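Problem: given the chain below (203 residues), write out its structure.
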Amino acid sequence: MTASALYLVRHGEVHNPDRLRYGRQPGFRLSERGRREVDACATWLGSRDTNIDLIAASPLERALETAQRIRERLRLSCDVRDDERLIEARSRFDGLRYRADLWGHLGRWFSSENIDEPSVAVAARVRDALLSISAETRGAAVIVSHQLPIQYVQLALERSGPVRPWHRRPPCATASVTVLVARGAALRVTEHWSPASELASDR
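Solution.
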């Protein structure tokens, strides 16, 4: 049984001057720094693996933009496919300012009909996506998602019990890569890379 390399990428930094919890909100694209982060990510991927034949992404703009930019930088012949299983975790607080809208957060907490997507469900759907993608690829795959889905699926692979929101989560900077190896139905995290050192002088 051959093993597949899966490069699970968080999208680049988002242009968000109003400091909103954008979550699944439409219209949020990469910032200028975010594009540079993604370029650094593509450079690292290209130096690491020349056998990438599949690229998939969450359907949200920032993830698709990240995936398309990686595809172009690496001159991949495959198209970018969107996969709903890779979308950001659902939150009742989407669209609110982080700390400046306390009353809005309290109001959503007590009155919103929507509830946060359970972390166990997020991890399960992302794991399902990873396994189905690994079954399709003949080489390696780039998979672009979001912070919580990436962290929750990694916790699920590393823990014996259910994943809870309060568990300490692994690092997941923008445009970082979590490297996994898939062998049949088994997934294993082998490495983590972040563009932070390459872009340290930007701050």
